[in-house]
Amino acid sequence: MKETRLGDFEEVLLLLVGILDMEAYSYRIADEFYRQTGRSISIGATHSTLERLEQKGFLKSKMGEATAERGGRRKRIFTITALGKRVLKESRDFKITLWAQYPDFSTNLQFV
Amino acid sequence: MKPIQPPKAARKLFEWFSGQANIDDLLGDLDELFLHHCKSKSPRKARFLYWRNVLSLCLSYALRKRKRDARYSHFSTSVVSLDMLHSYFKVAVRNLYQHKYFTVLNAFGLAIGMSIGLLLIAMYSYVRTYDTFHENGEHIYSIVTHRLSGVEDRHLASAPGLLAAKINEEYSGQVQAIEVRARFYGEVLAGNGRVPIGGYYCDDQFLEMFSFPLLSGKQDGILSKPNQVVLTERTALKLFGNSDIIGQTVELYEQGLFEVSGVLQDIPGNSHLMFDVLVSLASWKDQPIERVQEQWSEYPNQYVYVNLQHDNPGRLQSYLNKLSVNLNIHNPVQVTFSLQHLHDIATSDHYNAIGPKWELSGFIVFGAIALMILLPACFNYTNIAIARALKRSKEIGLRKTLGGMQRQIFFQFITETVVVCMIALIGGIACFIFMRSEFQRMMVAGSELDLSITPFMAFLFVAFAIFTGLVAGLFPAIYFSRLNPVEAIKSKLSTKTFNGMRVRKGLTIMQFSLSFCFILSIIVFGRQYRTLLNMDFGFRKENIVIIDLKGEVKPDVLMTELAKIPAIQSISFSSGMPVLTNNKTWIHLEKDSLEINQLFVNNDFLTQLNIQVLHGASFLETYTSHEQGVLVNEQLVRNSGLTVQDAIGHVIRVDSVDLPIVGIVQDFRHAPSSQPVGNFMLRYDPTRFSQVNAVIDVSNVFETFTSMEKSWKALSPDVPLQANFFENALDESFDTYKVLIKLAGFLGLLAISISILGLLGMVVFTVETRMKEVCIRKVMGASASTILVLLSKDFLKLLLFSVMLGIPMAVFIYQTVFTQIPNYHADLTVWDILAGTCGLFLLGIITITSQTYKTALTQPAEVLKTE
Fold first, then answer.
1. What is the pLDDT at residue B673?
2. What is the reported pLDDT for A1?
3. Hey, is the C-beta of B65 within 8 angstroms of any chain A C-beta?
4. Is B465 exposed, middle or buried (0-12, 13-18, 19+ CB in 10 A)?
């Protein structure tokens, strides 16, 4: 059976891909991750996770254009698939339902 | 300023590690990250981080997955699939079939080249099986010794027999040591003849240690009492006609009666222990009182074996070391012991070995010769394959354009070569079977060699063929796989081909130089042999028959009998014959000792062999009771520094008798041809005569021999007559040369035929490619002879170069190898070189013109009409 579960780290990367849109290639993703979270991740980990997400069908990739600072090598641009979007959404909804049941915060969380 | 570059080595490592996987984007990311780090950090730190990232990627899931995906892509070659191999094979077979002529040429050359290698493999794989049939073989060791006596420094296979008893007595561990004394020899009196048998002295434990199964007889005490023997089945059948002979006796000439206590199964051919008979150690008759000390330092033909089933070799070795230290303290002869495993005995290099030796050093020399024959054959293949690159470049270009990877093309060509080698293997095996018996006859111990093909050998043969294929095919395969597809498909092979041409020419020249050396060595060896045959020995050798005195025949009785035969012209006695007999002794002359060769003869001998007495007198036939004088040769007089006048009458001391020199004879060849003429003397002592020499009339040899036989039979009915012509016996003493000439001739024939095949291939190819050019030239008015010269010129130049290279090579080989043959080696003269050159050119020209002549005569219209 195809693995469809979404891990925590995977979810963050998936969101970052969505945010970066056409700029979503691994160097930028890692960079953005550092900016957003203050934690750095290794290039190997980034690629492995992206590769795994693609395997699960949440991402798809195509080779983009080359730039000089990359030594004339092309980028691999990732985009979220429809499945990826749905999984993200489900994950968020699931968490919100959980939050809704959480006693202290349930009354304060009216903004949705 | 030049921007800082990421570390190259890291990138190379990463690329290599990734193999077929697509890592373009990963490399890009690495570069971008590096650039980013360069801005904020020191270059060293940035480089370090680059390395770390490379390692992190190498170990990551991402790369693993990409590599896995790449493996199943269309361009993948990392897995050798069965289908692909099948396809390579098919294409190879089709290609070979299409170019039948070259295939046959190649296979033929490789078959010849491989034949010697196959012989070597067969020999090696047989020798490997030596002594493997013993059940306890893993644990049996022989004790070998290193003996240092003055300047004599030898590794001996023998060891003092006393050592066995000493080990059994003193050594604390659980070992079984046995003593074997070799070279038992006896003649069994059976019927009215004598059957010679040989073997070892040993005791019961011999049969416990080694697996020679008993057919009959009880193992217990089988060789414990004096005069007990165990026979092999073959010997038993020979002596008794059946093998059920326990308790019977055999009578040995001059050694008495022996009781047969057992019969053994015949010994396998691959045993280093070879015997007809085992005699109980108790029957060993001690030499007249040896000093104990000497028994530890003089031990020819004594061997010690140990079984270390319940002990380890290291412990025994340290015991032996201690023992030899103790022994050597008061002994001028230093002896040290070491263990040698049973399976290594047959291939070891020790002196005085009990059985046949197949030294490793011999195998290495043989291997070098095999390689010298094989490599030219491989060169030929390489040569022709590269020459045909032009024809096949379109095929390669197309394959590459359609996505054929370098590696695939490489494998394609290697497969093709291996297939050719497999075809050649069949031819090689045929050659091998043909050569096998001839080879065995040439070798000293060849008869013990069993070279029938076993599965293991067959496996080695196939492996050898594949190896040959790899050697021959490697260079062309690399060359083809590296072709630039665009150039290849347009048949525009640039500079690379030119280099190929040069390599090819170089290889051909090398080959022909080698052949040239072989031709020369055959010429020189041949002359050496001929000179030896026609050598002036300084005495007459024709029409002399040697009759060995055997049994109870009295010399003078035989003489009177023989004198009755009319064809016999004269009769003499001697203890041997010059050249054939090598009987050395020492004499005291003044204060010096001289080593000297001697023969015991009578006066008639001198007349028969036409040996001139230059000064003094010949023997007086009145010497009857004891010797009264000797004849010496001129060389002795020269060596002793005496004048001729002084020498006559001078007394020399020999065999503790003082004898005067009564005469001086001319120098003649008395020793084998490998030695120079040295000191020599003739003595008269009828008790030492061992042969009768008769000069016969050769007009009716058969009748003379029959009458001689009749006279002999009347005197000695038991022992048959043994008579030989002196001249034939002399010729036989040169058999070593005959074998050498045969060997050199045979190897030379192989080398020459391989190079001729190579040349033929090149000529055929050139002629084929230049066909159109030739025809256009003919249309323009060139004559057949001009064309012939044009086509042959280049090849003749190659031959010329190879002779130029071959002459120094041959001279070098002559000086290092031939001059090592002691004395009277034939010289390498200008005429030999000239003859060799002519021979090589003759062969070359025949080969070249056989092809070019045909081309020169073609009708231009036949070829050009299709254009």
1. 64
2. 39
3. yes
4. buried
What pLDDT digit, counting tens, does each position of B140-198 carry? 999 998 888 777 788 888 888 888 888 888 887 778 888 888 878 888 877 666 778 88
CA–CA gap between residue A53 and residue A13 (Å, rounded): 9
Residue carrying structure tokens 């990551």: B60
| B-chain residues near A26 (CB < 8 A) | 25, 29
Q: How many residues does chain B have?
A: 867
Give the chain B residue whose CA is nearest to the CA of A68. Answer: B32
SS3 B565: coil
Rounded Cα distance, B741 and B529, in Å: 8
For residue B51, give the chain A residue with the closest CA. A43
**Is the Cα torsion angle B363, B369, B372, B373 positive or negative in sign?**
negative
Give the residue among B595, B409, B508, B420 at the shortest CA–CA distance from B806: B508
Q: Give the B window 8-47 contacts with A, CB below 8 Å.
A: 24-33, 35-36
| Partner-chain residue, chosen from B25, B33, B66, that has the shortest CB–CB distance to A75 | B25
| B69 touches A at CB < 8 Å | no
Residue of B nearest to A65 (CA): B25
Helical (H) or strand (E) element with B797: helix B784-816
What letter does residue B343 receive in the DSSP assignment? G
d(CA B185, CA B200): 8
* Span B493-498, average pLDDT: 52
CA of B742: how far to CAs of B424, B727, B738, in Å?
Answer: 25, 22, 6
CA atoms within 13 A on the CB side of B259: 13
**Closest Cα in chain A to B59:** A44
- Minimal Cα–Cα distance from A28 to chain B, Å? 9
Question: Would you say the pTM of this structure is higher than 0.90?
Answer: no
- Taking alpha carbons only, the member of B392, B471, B433, B452 closest to residue B110 is B471
Q: Does B3 touch chain A (CB under 8 A)?
A: no
pLDDT tens per residue across span B311-324: 888 888 888 888 88
The answer to whether the Cβ–Cβ distance between A70 and B28 falls below 8 Å is yes
CA distances from B257 to B202, B228, B278 (A): 18, 9, 14
Q: Residue B244, class by beta-carbon neighbours within 10 Å (0-12 exposed, 13-18 middle, 19+ buried)?
A: exposed
Measured distance CA(B569)–CA(B564) in Å, rounded:
10
Q: Quick one: pLDDT band at residue B419, thresholds 50, 70, 90? A: very high
Distance of CA B166 to the CA centre of its chain: 40
pLDDT tens digits for range B619-665:
656 556 667 788 888 888 888 777 878 888 888 888 778 888 888 88
